[in-house]
Task: structure prediction
Amino acid sequence: MNWLDTILQGILLGGLYALFAAGLALVFGIMRLVNLAHGDLIVLGAYLVMYLVGALGINPVLAALFAAPLMFALGWAIQRLVLNRVLGPDILPPLLVTFGLSIVIQNGLQMGFTADSRRISAGPLETASVDLGFVTLGVMPLLTFASAIAVILVLNWIFYHTAMGRAFRATSDDPVTASLMGIRPKAIFAQATGLAMVVVTVAALYLGMRANFDPTIGPARLIYAFEAVIIGGLGSLWGTLAGGIIIGVAQTFGAAVNPEWQILSGHIAFLAVLLVRPRGLFPRAFD
Amino acid sequence: MSGLLQTRGLTARYGDFQALFGVDIHLEEGECVAIIGANGAGKTTLMRSISGVLVNAAEQVIFGTDLIGALPADQVMARGIAMVPEGRRLFPSLTVEENLLVGAHGRKTAGPWTLDAIYDLFPILRERRHNPGTALSGGQQQMVAIGRALMSNPRVILCDELSLGLAPVVIRDIYAALPRIRAGGASIIIVEQDIGQALKVADRVYCMMEGRVTLQGRPADLTRAEIHDAYFGANA
Result:
């Protein structure tokens, strides 16, 4: 086992998991909603990008740019029409509704696109690599990781340097007092879910270009995303990236020892972090 | 009765529990009115009802000529009624300056109150502008809460329990800002348990007990005995 190579590949894989997780963290951070359909929405995004690539004959990145506003609208509508109605002091109704949404999306995709395994073709990019001498890194994983960092930088900028971000944080702190500031919490929630779906589109682009996907793989993506969020501790999106990296490195190490252990070792790392830091690495200061 | 803001037969409830029983108060343009009463008298419920946190029948709260009793808080705020909530309720994730800025989120009306004007009113906040709101002392937090409400240049400002949990010297500083707030054009309703303080600053006083107004009038016209009876009940 080449240790350095394994670690680097794991870190880059963590970028993908951070992309899966960032949207989930955003929604959970603002409205304490665990969206069990998050993984399926990523898969839905991948199908949308794939469809646009085929229908318009454009490259996947451009297709994702077209898909992003559609996904924003979808997130906004789901929040407005469905989730805002069930958000409240009881956490069970939103869980049940997003669980139902997950099933609807999976079955809808199977009806629309069959259960066949698909892939978004990225041409020569798929196999391109950079040889650093001591280790060779794939261009696609590098792009994924760079995109994860870009997504976090942009989200942080929105959070800390715009009126929208200020309203997000105020609503997250205290929705009743936020409404006294003229903020409509339900409108904020819809914007936040829309924004999360834009992040989901980025995640979907890389999910679709890096591996095969079919309508049923969403829940497994949700678990990786959820673990990254919990390890990160909800205090910051950089924590979510750290969470993604921990799972990614654990998985590549597990796979290096025995390919059967890849998934398992990610979950074990998650449990190990929770044993040491039950509130995650970077917990929120106020809860 | 007319005036800038009034409640008419306000009967607020929390589910099955009725907290107010036909409360009528009114506030004239430029006036400062104090609501006094013991814990549980319904003062905070009254503030929550006017500000829209508690939704009532439309005609129970009237602002100018508009029936606003059924409007949610964000729409009430947009019309120019700002609230300094009980317990200050600063946003812990926001800095002092962000707490002030968010106060104008739903109503960006030109007027005397800007970030600079608030820093002139409470100079200590300018020094602490980049601190988290919750890193401040209680009195400074109260200044932020007042400044946050002023940022929307409201026509009415509701102040719920300004002096709660603050030292007397700090309370004096906070109340010293009241004349300048009135000079800026805002009419004020203050809720206060400290009767002396309320009588000192208010043009008129309402005393509440068990969800009803039991006494009202100008401070000079009310005797200590009357207030005592209205506050604690005649047989207390």
